[in-house]
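Page 47, continued from p. 46.
Same chain as before, 159 aa.
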Amino acid sequence: MSPGRTHHPETACNRRAAKVHDDYVAHARKLDTRFRPTQIGTGNRPEGVGPFEERLNEFGQVRPLVFGPFADVNSEFNVVIKEMAVQGAKKMWNTMLCKTPEDAVGILMWRARVYLGKAILHANANFLLNQVRGMTEDDRSTRHVSGRAAIFGPYVKKN
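Result:
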């Protein structure tokens, strides 16, 4: 490890998140050159900007939500959860039996983190299982099993 460099998982997510907007812009430029090369820099567009990139720029900066393999997230994720909780608390604080909307924010943030954390872990587990499937020589590991065979396994009566 080099001195002064942090190897915390969140920094990996933040590094990836920093690249997302530029990746979207690069993809929009590829689409412009492939499908609309004659419209790049024409009309009211700045020099070198095509219709796809112009439309992307109308939305502003992309707010990436990046998840890591151990349910780690980038720092923007926490900002988005806070904004969701504030908006939800304005509408639901009374039905949540909280004294003020500020009291409901913490509860909603916790619930969102728990539910999204479970979803991230579940998605990562499915990803890993799908990667492992097919790596063995056993032919049965790549076969899809459904219906009664999935429930009862080898005990299914064959006609």
